[in-house]
């Protein structure tokens, strides 16, 4: 048999696909994808900001005061 890989673009599409598959009593499994692209963009922007001198440095010992 074949394996299908689908890429829903919204939570609504994902929910509809899961409901359809369950209604047909088809076995399926899920896998988590990579990090959320918005989250990754924020991390990369933060790193770029640090390189450009934006941000504040805090010594580790100052975190516990």
TrEMBL record:
Alphabetized InterPro entries for the sequence: Uncharacterised_MJ1172
Pfam family of the protein (one): DUF2683
The organism of origin for this protein: Mucilaginibacter terrae
Name recorded for this polypeptide: Uncharacterized protein
